[in-house]
Design a protein that fits this description.
There is one protein chain. This protein is α/β, with parallel strands linked by helices. The chain has three domains: about 190 residues, 3-Layer(aba) Sandwich (Rossmann fold); about 80 residues, Roll (Ubiquitin-like (UB roll)), CATH 3.10.20; about 100 residues, de novo design (two linked rop proteins) (Up-down Bundle), CATH 1.20.1440.230. The chain is globular and about 65 Å long. It starts with 10 loop residues before the first helix and ends in a 19-residue tail after the last helix. The structure holds iron/sulfur cluster. The site of iron/sulfur cluster has 14 residues, from helix 11 and helix 13.
Length: about 425
Amino acid sequence: MTTRLPSPEDRVARWNRATMALVPLAGAPAPLVLDRDTRETLAEYVRPDGVSGRELIDAVEAADLRGRGGAGFPTAVKMRAVAEREGPRTVVANGDEGEPLAVKDRYLLRIRPHLVLDGLLRAADAVSADRAVVYLSDALAEDSVRTALDEVGRTAVPIDVVRVARTYVGGEESAVVRAVNGGPALPTDKPPRPFESGVDGGPTLVANVETLARIPGIAAGTASDSVLLTLTGAVERPGLYEVPLGRPLREHLTVPSAPQGFLMGGFFAGLLGPRALDIPFGFAELRAEGSGLGCGAVFVLGPDDCPVAAVADVLAYFDRENARQCGPCFRGTAAMAEAARELADGTATDARLEKLRGWSQSLRGRGACATLDGACNVVASLLDEFPELVDRHRATPCPRCAALPAADRTAPDIDPESEES
Ligand code: SF4
């Protein structure tokens, strides 16, 4: 399976302009996971003591640890669901990181493999797992993890490493299970969910790499309430930062001139206008504003960037990257991508705009995975957050969008509502 990530030629990459400057993260917690830039060896890793077994699940619940892969689901709930079922049980460290705007899982696997393995083994112990797996797509991360396993030697449960090609959908938890079981890294219909029937048919905890990296600190009672933020776009210093959960991004950023907007949660949680700077950067707070923290990736659109063009770019990406398994998804992303392109070049009719608005609601939940929901989020957020810009843009496209080649008017109309695949 091949994947096409945004290349330097993509407009996604060309949004990157130095219009914002980062300042030191005032008030940020002492970094727990981002404290080095070279690979940590076993001799350097300080393994904290702490609670274990079911007490660890209680501690994870008390810490309100939520999945850092995108869904934000309570980790303790997933752990209990696996622990309470008959074995054989498996825990998978999910480091596929298909989201094109995120780098945190690769950082952790490459630089702090012992922290991840420690979290994985503690989670495996807590749910009484028989087996553990590190699932990844990055070659350097694989080398780092394999070296770490050689350093550790024998572990309490066997740990396998499974590497797949990097795709947007390969990290979805049913795709993870399918790939570990020897199939393609593609999502399956739910139920069953992995905790019901996962690796080798047994209950399986699929946990994001950052989620697991938080567990040693939680076990020891030293965890900080922080999140890894991959910051890209119109910023002076794009990169990976550890920031406190629940504090506005404005506390960490200097904005010399007004940004146009923010792509939240990578390509998944949609666009927010400049008000994003004042919303506490947390799971509940962003959800309450119709957005999301997702995998912690934020892309900043600078003053010269165009939210309409950004949405057209993201939808074109989804149109390329969806797994083409579910009719509503591959037809829906294609239809929405085409309509967004018409919005960008100023040729979208009123009827087309209303169709696009309708699809962004009616297609939700219609795919085997959340990719289609991500496409819907991006469209709905553009129409809700930037209504005047959309109207203005339809009348007079911005210079950047006006320079785009005209959309293909010979393509047949697509009916995303059809269930045919
Ligand atoms: S929803 Fe889309 S991306 Fe997900 S499995 Fe179906 S076709 Fe593939």
